[in-house]
Every structure is written in structure tokens, then in C-alpha cells.
Design goal:
Blueprint (H helix, E strand, L loop, with lengths): L1 E2 L11 H4 L14 E2 L2 E4 L3 H13 L5 E4 L15 E2 L15 H24 L7 E2 L3 E5 L2 H16 L5 E4 H8 L6 E5 L3 E3 L1 H14 L3 E3 L6 E4 L4 E4 L4 E4 L1 E4 L16 E10 L4 H7 L5 E5 L6 E5 L6 E10 L8 H17 L8 E11 L6 E6 L2 E5 L5 H16 L5 H8 L11 H17 L4
Parallel strand pairs: 2-14, 3-4, 3-15, 4-11, 7-17, 15-22
Antiparallel strand pairs: 1-12, 5-10, 6-10, 7-9, 8-9, 12-13, 13-14, 16-19, 16-20, 17-18, 18-19, 21-22
The structure holds flavin-adenine dinucleotide (FAD).
The site of flavin-adenine dinucleotide (FAD) has 39 residues, from helix 2, strand 16, strand 20 and helix 9.
Length: about 450
């Protein structure tokens, strides 16, 4: 029997969820039962796995167990960029090796198309999933150079992009802060909490049973089934998909192979009509930073009002817990980044500050595949979890169902996540890389 000692920790509010009307509630698991399939975790990977299982097995019983409420975890806390193109966070300008980037782009698009067809089938609200593209925004000459290098790399991949000058950037965002930008059309922008809620709601209508506030605390392989225990009851099932991202380590797999990072973000209060006017620009846009360690900024308008969301700062947290005081400290940095970009919104304060976990591996591969008879992993999304989570969720469902596909083969052919160096070397190394990267990012932060 394995006892799961660490449970998810999500500091601060799930702001994207808080700005929406009240969420539908799902029950928690109170009685013992059986199921044909159990998916643990209701993030991008878990929901995609359940959706793919439903397509492959229309009549089977499928259960999702989620430790928290739907959209309260990292899947509802991110910046909402579903990026199709290479987005290698370990390179300053996101560029990776050519052939790997071609394959990754194809697989990313497969995942985004899957999300889009679910959004159509389940009739998502318009702002939950929009194929609007995104801009790599450059605030420095070095950032402009990163964009030019990235544009050259895109050309070698036969991918189109548009370079934007300062004036065009101002027309989009209302700020003079940026010297240039690089627009690519294939990114889908999601309202992450709305996307997750509406995907879960669609699955529930499709007969998938969702239990919230039902953390798995123990699991064990019996002769013919896995027994999965929550605080109040147990489910027996022949097949389990673990879609718990970095917490797969808490389940006893991929130990000391995963890099646990927390990212931090803040969201303004609603902008008033006069503030919207003084800001100018377009009502919705998304900027990733030209330097990977810089600041991601989004302007949103929709059912949660007109707001700006700022994301920067990261910490290395092998314990999967963070010190809550970090939120105040990083909130001040977010306010500074916001004020530098939008001096005309001097009176606008941040209403929400939060953090969320993501999981990387040193060699940028997923924690994927059958770990034991009937137990499959769909974890470690390497910074692009909206897309790669969706992808490994689809592929885990296919593998568990005995299906074959080109993308499954390539994912299974990847090596395992590399081992981490021993502590304290790993912590010292990770912190040094992050702090140095932030320092070098300069005005991009
Ligand atoms: C501030 C921020 C900004 C980000 N921006 C982006 C972005 O713009 N684009 C992008 O692609 N990615 C972004 N990310 C990363 C992205 O959110 C994650 O990589 C993604 O959520 C991973 O999806 P997942 O389904 O693998 O894992 P998660 O979303 O972490 O889902 C795993 C689920 O498992 C549950 N769980 C864990 N343990 C248990 C247990 N014992 N029992 C039951 N359930 C359990 C958790 O509660 C959680 O809901 C960002 C992250 C943060 C924090």
C-alpha cells in the first residue's frame, strides 16, 4: 500500500475562478464503488484523459477524483496561453533543436485542436477558448534581438509570423513600454478557470462522474484491481490514469527526477470606463515576454470585467509548498511591472495575488507511460501545461486503451526525466539559474 503524504498546495486565491459567477459543485466521494476507469487529477491532463476515454469507451464508467475544487488548482491559475509553437523555457529565446521543434509543434497543434473540438462540442462560452494568436513582446533591444532570432527559427520551421514596431504595439496595448513584438497566429487564449469548468461540465453531461474535494490518500494493487482510497471511501478499478503533474512524485513515481517550480501572478481590480479610455488599445490581448524570464501580461474583458493580469517571478520548491509571505513580496514586484508599463493607470491596484505549481524535467520530457500493470502516468508538462497536459492526457488514455498512434510512439520513445543532483546542490543550482535569469531579463521583467 502506498500512502500519499503530500497534498496539493495552491497559495492565494484562484483569481480567474473568483471573477466568474459561482461555480457548479460536484460531490465528494462518500461511498465505496467500482469504476472501469479512474483518472486522478482534474487539470488539463486529467480532463483530456477523461474526454479521450469517453470517446474510446462510450459505455464505460469513468470517474475523476480531484483533491480540490474544479479550477482551483494550477489548471485554473495559469496565464491561459495555449501555444502551438516551440516554447522552450530553458532557452532565453524559446528556441530548441529543429527536428524536435517540428514534431513538438505538430503535437501541440493536435492538443489545441482537441481542446477546440471539445469547446465546440460542449458549447463553451466565447471567452473560454479563443484562437486569437499571441505576441512575444520586447521591451529592450535585447528582446527585439530575441524576437528576430525566433523569427529566423520560425522561418526554418516554415512557420509564419509578423514583426510589430513600437507604434503597432502601442495601438494594441496602449503602452509605449514595448519596442517591438512578434505575432504568431496559432495560439489559443483561454480563460483558464472557465475552460476547465466548462470542460468538466461537458464531461459530467457525457456521463463522467467527477468527485471534488476527494484527495487520494492511499492506493494499492490488489489481485485484479487498484484500490484507491480517499478520506471517506474507496474505489476499485482495473485502470488508473495519474494526472497529478508534479504530485506523481508524492505517489512514489519519478522520485528526484522532477523540478517543482511555483509561478506567481497578480490581477488588477476591474478597470473603470474612464481608465479603459485612458488606457486605449484593444480589449483583449496576450503578451509573452521576448525573454523567457520576463513578464507575461494579458488584458482581458469579459464576464469578469476589464482587467490586466501580470505574471513574473518563480521559486524552486522541492517540498511542493511555498512560504505564503512570497505572495506579498512578489505582489509588490507585479505592481512595479504593471506601473512601469501603464503609468496612465497609476491609481489601479491589484485585487488578487496568487501562485501555482508547475513541473519541469531537466531534459524537458514528460513523466509518462505505464508505471505498473494498469497504472498510467500523464504528468510533468514542462511549462506549457495547457497544451502538453492536454496532449499527455489524450495519449495516456490511448495507451491505456491499447491504441497506437504516431504521437504516442514518439512520446514513449522519449527518455525518462533525468535525475536531479543531490541536495543542496539542486536547490542552489536552480535558485542561481532563476535569479541570474531574472537579473539578465532587465526591463523585460
Ligand atoms: C501563474 C501560472 C501561469 C502559467 N501560465 C501558463 C500558460 O500561460 N500556458 C501554459 O501552457 N501553462 C501555464 N502554466 C502552467 C500550467 O498551469 C500547468 O503546467 C498545468 O496546469 C499542468 O496541467 P496538469 O493537468 O498536468 O496539472 P494540474 O493542472 O496541476 O492538475 C493536477 C491536478 O491534480 C490534483 N491532485 C494532485 N494530487 C492529488 C491527489 N492526491 N488526489 C486527487 N487529486 C490530486 C491537483 O489538485 C490538480 O488539480 C502556468 C502556471 C502558473 C502557476
Amino acid at each position: 500500500m502506498t500512502i500519499i503524504k503530500r497534498q496539493p498546495y495552491d497559495p492565494g486565491p484562484a483569481a480567474w475562478n473568483s471573477i466568474l459567477p459561482e461555480a457548479p459543485q460536484y460531490p465528494h466521494l462518500e461511498e465505496n464503488r467500482t469504476a472501469d476507469w479512474v483518472v486522478i487529477g482534474a487539470g488539463f491532463a486529467g480532463l483530456a484523459a477523461a474526454k479521450r476515454l469517453r470517446q474510446l469507451h462510450p459505455k464505460d464508467s469513468i470517474v475523476i477524483l480531484e483533491a480540490r475544487q474544479i479550477a482551483h488548482g494550477p489548471a485554473g491559475r495559469n496565464s491561459g496561453f495555449m501555444i502551438d509553437l516551440p516554447h522552450n523555457l530553458s532557452a532565453q529565446d524559446y528556441v530548441g533543436e529543429l527536428n524536435a521543434d517540428v514534431l513538438q509543434t505538430k503535437m501541440n497543434r493536435h492538443a489545441i485542436n482537441f481542446a477546440e473540438s471539445a469547446s465546440k462540442e460542449y458549447e463553451f462560452s466565447k471567452e473560454a477558448f479563443v484562437r486569437s494568436g499571441k505576441i512575444n513582446a520586447a521591451a529592450t533591444a535585447k528582446g527585439v534581438k530575441h524576437n528576430l532570432d525566433y523569427a529566423t527559427h520560425l522561418k526554418s520551421l516554415h512557420e509564419a509570423c509578423d514583426l510589430l514596431d513600437q507604434q503597432q504595439m502601442r495601438e494594441i496595448c496602449g503602452s509605449d513600454y514595448y519596442q517591438g513584438g512578434l505575432f504568431t497566429a496559432g495560439t489559443a487564449m483561454i480563460q483558464p478557470a472557465l475552460f476547465v469548468r466548462e470542460l468538466a461540465a461537458g464531461l459530467a453531461k457525457d456521463g463522467v462522474t467527477i468527485y471534488e474535494n476527494s484527495a487520494v490518500i492511499e492506493f494499492e494493487k490488489k489481485t485484479s484491481a487498484w484500490e484507491i482510497k480517499t478520506a471517506k471511501a474507496t474505489i476499485s478499478t482495473p485502470k488508473v490514469i495519474l494526472a497529478v503533474n508534479g504530485h506523481i512524485e508524492s505517489f512514489g513515481y519519478f522520485k528526484r527526477r522532477l523540478v517543482h517550480i511555483y509561478l506567481y501572478a497578480s490581477m488588477t481590480r476591474k478597470l473603470s470606463e474612464s481608465e479603459i479610455k485612458s488606457l486605449g488599445g484593444e480589449a483583449n490581448w496576450g503578451f509573452t515576454p521576448a525573454d523567457a524570464m520576463g513578464t507575461t501580461v494579458r488584458r482581458i474583458s469579459g464576464m469578469g470585467g476589464n482587467r490586466i493580469v501580470v505574471r513574473n517571478q518563480m521559486t524552486y520548491n522541492p517540498s511542493l509548498k511555498v512560504d505564503k509571505s512570497k505572495l506579498d513580496k512578489f505582489g509588490i514586484k507585479h505592481q512595479q511591472s504593471f506601473k512601469a508599463r501603464f503609468p496612465q493607470l497609476n491609481a489601479v491596484t491589484m485585487e488578487h495575488q496568487w501562485g501555482g505549481a508547475l513541473c519541469l524535467s531537466r531534459n524537458s520530457v514528460a513523466a509518462f507511460g505505464e508505471q505498473e500493470d494498469g497504472l498510467f502516468a500523464a504528468c510533468c508538462q514542462n511549462g506549457l501545461g495547457t497544451v502538453q497536459g492536454t496532449l499527455v492526457g489524450i495519449l495516456a488514455a490511448e495507451q491505456a486503451s491499447g491504441q497506437d498512434s504516431e504521437y504516442l510512439k514518439s512520446t514513449l520513445a522519449q527518455s525518462q526525466p533525468n535525475h536531479l543532483p543531490p541536495e543542496p546542490i539542486a536547490s542552489i543550482g536552480a535558485n542561481a539559474v532563476m535569479r541570474w535569469g531574472e537579473f539578465k531579463a532587465g526591463r523585460e521583467l
